[in-house]
From TrEMBL:
GO terms for molecular function: electron transfer activity. May act as a carbohydrate transporter. Belongs to the early nodulin-like (ENODL) family. It holds the Pfam family Cu_bind_like. Residues 1-27 form the signal peptide. It comes from Manihot esculenta (Cassava). This is Phytocyanin domain-containing protein. Transmembrane segments: none annotated. The keyword Oxidoreductase does not apply. GO terms for cellular component: plasma membrane.
Length: 173
């Protein structure tokens, strides 16, 4: 088995473990930007137009031309000054890249090579998953629907399959 395949299997196993550990919480995949990760675009305005919240466990999906751009996680000071030196994490893999938001805090992303000055930067504020109220018991109907365990399992399988497809496609672009 090649190095690439081994890394893909390890990544898949990590995703499955994380999703199972979230105890049925619904993770959401957020595509960054209406047209993707591009220069001369105001990502702050894009965020302000959306009534969307980012929660622990959610994923950001960056779509961009890997030959020109990248995605770096930086601290607030570097974000404010468009400094790409000493970045926290380079999430660039193939132009169809995802990053999981693992803790409640602000996340700062930018593209290096001067593109940050052209607007390629975004600050995402991540919240703790709000507690869900306990479901009230409802009477069983004939032809009852899927159990919550089955539904959660199906969501996990679909989310994992989607992630694998994203990673797989990034290797062939």
């Amino acid at each position: 088995m090649g190095d690439l395949a081994r890394k893909g299997i390890v990544g898949l196993m990590i995703i499955v473990v994380v999703m199972i550990g979230m105890d049925g919480a619904e993770c959401k995949l957020h595509k960054v930007g209406a047209r993707g990760w591009i220069p001369n675009y105001n990502y702050t305005e894009w965020l302000n137009q959306r009534d969307e919240h980012f929660y622990v466990g959610d994923w950001l999906y960056f779509v961009f031309d890997k030959h020109y751009f990248n995605v770096l996680e930086v601290n607030k000071t570097s974000y404010d000054s468009c400094n790409d030196q000493g970045f926290i994490n380079n999430i660039t893999r193939g132009g169809r890249d995802v990053v999981q938001l693992t803790e409640p805090r602000p996340y700062y992303f930018l593209s290096s090579g001067g593109y940050c000055w052209g607007g390629m930067k975004v600050a995402i504020y991540v919240e703790q998953i709000p507690p869900t109220p306990a479901p009230s018991p409802t009477p069983a109907k004939s032809g009852s629907s899927l159990s919550s365990t089955t539904t959660t399992l199906m969501k996990t399988i679909l989310s994992t399959a989607f992630y694998v497809a994203l990673v797989w496609s990034s290797f062939f672009n």
